[in-house]
Records
---
Amino acid sequence: MPNPLVAWMAVALLAMAGTGLLLSRDWRWELGLLAAQYLGAAVLVAQHLPLGMAATKLVTGWMTTAALGMTLTVLPYREQSGEEYWPQGRVFRLFMSGTILVLAAAITPRIDAVMAGIGAPVIAGTILLTGIGLLQLGTSQRMPRVIFGLLSVLAGFEVFYAAVESSILVAGLLAVVTLGLGLVGAYLLVAASAEESA
Amino acid sequence: MSAPLVWILIPILIGGFTLVLLGERVIALTGGVVCASLAAIALIVPIDEALRFGPLSIKISSSASFLGRSLVLPPTEAPLLAVIFGLCALWFFGAEAAGVARQLIPLGLMICGFLVASLAVQPFLFASLLVEMSVLVAVPMLSPGEQRPGRGVIRFLVYQTLGMPFILLAGWLLAGVETSPGDLSLTIQATVMLGLGFAFLLAVFPLYDWIPQLMDQNHPYVAGFVLWLLPSIVVVFGMSFLDRYAWLRTSPNVITGLRGMGLLMLVTGGLWSAFARHLGRLMAYASITETGFLLISMSLAGASGVNLTFAFLVPRGLSLALWALALAVIGKSAASLSFPSVQGRARMYPWACAALALAGLSAAGFPLLAGFPPRLALWQALAHDTIAGAIWFLVGLIGLMIGAVRQLAVVVVNKEGDRWAPTENIIQRGMLGLGILGLVLLGMFPQLPAFVVGRLPLMFEHLSR
């Protein structure tokens, strides 16, 4: 059942979690923020899909987070090394996440006017998630960050796509892709650390 | 029994089964025999028709239901299944000679299954999800656990994953275009989304930087398999869009875009190839130009475009398989595949270096080799439409030819003290010899695969007219 207040609260949660994910360099915080991101995404998905299907997305997201968490827990390295490339630093990342927030605030009403029926919170959530995800992909080469970025982009897309396509097959395949991405991420994390620890 | 069960589920299950097999040879034989059998079934047993063997009657139905949607492999797709599984059998039989059967075959079979499922799923727009699943399976195959994942693998994962949402969104927009065909802005949005999606999936210029990195940092045979199979299926997927939407296949902008991108890939791939100093990267650039050829073929109007696109299918698969096998053999004892590391290797690996030279020349369209007939036909067809395009086509081919000659010069260079001491084993010689023979036979008799390839355009009701 669509509830605008709950939906906007989910958008606020996504904004905080996304910004935190971009700023944080501690893997524990990152996992918590990723889980919060999936909670917000599931609330937005529930605006258009039945609660059961939205819950599936939440469970899939949390399972993915758990898989990544279990991997990061056992890895020998946990330090958050600096990026190789300029620009970097917390201020820069904060500025970029602010840009995404401004972008979302600016273009959500326009898109909402063109695509009636989807809802402004869903559009804003989509822009936030994909924007922050692309930002992570574009500003970091670190494996966990790449995976978090891809998962964020995918979650943003799922929020939007749930509003236009309600097929069970698509929901199932997207869940498999999300989980698969988490597992592949965990695999790559282990592979990346194996050589470092050797 | 249904066709999706035979050509989707069986490869995936057998792929899972081969994970527990131990011997390289057993895995290679299992994978090769399974794929060859599936290709033979696709050729012999008609789909949706009863086949009688005395008292026994076998019928493979074309569709199966899955999560409320259909997976359909109609009789017109049987030749494509035969080609895909036939070429997969070739790759898998060669995997033992390349020393990567355990790394390639189990996950390779699963990838085949997912990609065939992407051709079968209805509505076909959902295919991009299955392509993404095959990409996810390909990552551990490309980057085995003991090896640090290189940038090529990560970019491969990122770019392919980013392609999926664009295709799905394009599908949603295309449904809107169908209901209101006069809406120009919606049409433009759908075309842009579709273009971006396929640009990511096919690694169109400038999104192909991961291909040379992949060939540089990963095993050439495994990377070559991915570079052969994925674009082949994605191109068929792309042709489904052209077949389904009349405005798309008749749009001059789409045709110009396809042709321009194809030529850009051919020219840039050819030029990079001319200056490359790494055997793996040379093959990567050749595979980029192969995608360029496919895009140019798709841009040609009517049945000739479809026929030309499919004409590349078999020579491309054979040529890339042979090239990748040659690189795998040469790379076994070399520190890397960079030019300084492989100088004079022809004295140690004469068969592999011969295969390398012929595969490179075939990619450049050298006469009497497999790559020559489709390139010549495409060049002629392109010259009918645009002379400037034909000239740029020649530039790309010249770049590839320079690359092929340079790699030949590097491997045959006579370093002081080197003597002829061939070290390839009998399996490597056999597989390389068969590949060379196939390359020459396809060059001399290009109509050899016509009994299968000739039926492929029937998959597309509108494009084949």
---
Amino acid sequence: MQEVEIEGLFFDGQTSAQHRAALFYREDGQVGMVGSARQPVSWQSLNISTRIGNTPRYIEFPDGSQFETADNDGVDLLCRRLGYRDRQGFVHVLETNKRYVVMMLVIVIMAVWGFVQYGVPAMSREIALLMPDSVSRTMGEGVLDFLDNQFMAPSALSDRRQAELRALFESYADQLDEGLSLQVEFRDGGPMAANAFALPDGTIVFTDQLIELADDDREIASVMLHEIGHVHYRHSLRSAVQQFSLAMLVMLVTGDVSASSSVVTALPLVLVQTGYSRDMEWEADGFALHFMQQWEIPPEFFASMMEKLEARYSDVYEACREDGSQVSACIEEAVASLERSRGGDMVESYLSTHPLSRERVERFRSALP
Amino acid sequence: MNQTVAVARDRILPFEFQGKAKEYFSIWIVNIALTIVTLGIYSAWAKVRTNQYFYGSTFLDGASFRYLASPMQILKGRIVAFVLFLAYYFSGLISPEASGVTFLLLMLLFPALLVMSMAFKLRNSAWKNVRFDFEKNFKKAYMIFTVPVLLIGAYVGMTFLLLPTGAQPMTETDAQQLQDIPKAIFLIPLLFPILFPLFEYLLVRFLVNHSRYGDGVFDFDTGAGGFYGMYVLAGLVFLVVGVIYGILIAGVSAGIGSMLDESPAQGIVGMAVSLLLMLPLYLWIFAYINAKKTNLIYSNIRIDGHELESDLKVSDMFGLYVTNTLAILLSLGLLMPWAKIRTARYRASRTRLNAMDDLDDYANAQRQRQSALGEEMGEMFDMDLGV
């Protein structure tokens, strides 16, 4: 009867001693070691490792001994001849066929792109809306305390002014009929400067600096509506879900957790997250615009407020402040400079380096009142 | 059976890595695609296949390493770990208290997870048909973690208690209370860098000393001095180079400023330049610590008189990291397999075993299979210590 041999190393399973050896198999299905006193065994009692690239194959005998060989083709032939079925063999077929590899590559690229572009935002929106109110409420707990401790101070606005703004706020919030428990707070922003933000529990915080920046209460109202938009769409919860989904994606692609903290993955992650937060700003703007139009507040008020907020960080403003001028005078100067540079072919304006801010302003400017 | 392979005394046996980037790329991309198609379930098989490829491509004394974990074990662990990871991630959203409790629980579980994870990894690794092993000594693991956990716990606890709560401004009594606490509390953060190298040394010694190859016992044969030396030098370099960079960056951004003449882009350009300058420093520190630590650990491992030796070069590692990072970023991740393969090849080329005599006498110790739970949970919470 014809015998086929495969060269390799034999280990008896008791010790680490290695022996150069040859494995043989016959057409009657008996497999054994050449020159060994051990009885050949039936191929059915063997455990043959699956093929992975060109790494060695391991053939385990029932007595715990093992044959290791680099002769992958020889082992493949053995499996075919004797009828040994490798349940994972199809993976090796996928890995070695160029057409399949390209197909897999296309699947991965499409899936990752689709997931990042559509999957994560859609999924996180749904999940955020599904969560009970209590999650939003508890999520914001402690955040305001933390900010108060670290950055902000009690508001310096007069009680009358605060009451006035609260009344304005409530007049809008009542009309919204959202079932949201909205509440407005005023603080001296300190290092947070002119700012407004919404906490997930529906608390909306304005800094004194932002209030001072406004020339018309309707500007403040437009910012309120924008912030209510964040609460309405539960954006805090959504970003948490988005972050989580992205972390899972990174783990999936790189195969380990630590990768999510390395430079290589940090950069793309930051870019993607910036994209998501732009989307959410855009969505909150849409909310504000919708109600401004409905209640006949000219959308221009949001545009002018945005410009003033941006102008506050511009060089013109900084220079003017250094001269010791009044805040309001400097803002006016900075906005005017923005207007000028937008019209002409001037190289840079602050807004053009921030395309999103510009787009947002344009959106409100071009909207019907 | 043919003849036993001839054995010479005092042999230097180099590690050799024979993986190929092209081959691994196919394995990698098929793994990801199948994981996506099966909604993540295949990830357990993918992990096993990847490990089998890297183990199987590593040779010592003519024989390859083998990874033996079964995907089903890993899948079960992954499901539990995933649920825990979810809980850990979202507990922070629900309330600070919930996340505090989860964090505390994890801290308490950490040493046990580490031990189980090591045991799973080693028991599923084999060479020459003899398995590695890890002696599960939970008591010692907990003892090593006691001091750092107590320190961190005390610090976090005190900070929590001391912070005045609520939006109201600090009252007289609050201020008085703040005066009363011992100043020593504020010294705790200072203790961290002083104690960290010692802690890391004790941990590595624990992990090495409880590792086995068959019936051969690993021994970690050095003191904590090397760990201190490594971190002190890294810290000094960081300081010196950081100062030089600071001067450079100030100069560069001043130069750019005058060129662009008060353009608002100045700030952005300045930031980009300083980031670009910082990145190499960051990568260098990373390469330095990684190379030195690997050398320090491997070169001090003895197994019955056989000595492991590793001499990674910081400059080589730095070159690898820089080129890998650039390649992965520019290829949108597609060169990740290439980066992994060349790193593994370099590491293997710098590692060898100085064998006293033949390595034939290690007997297989029969042990029961280890549950994958420990390892997978460890993996999800990122405690791979690179040992």
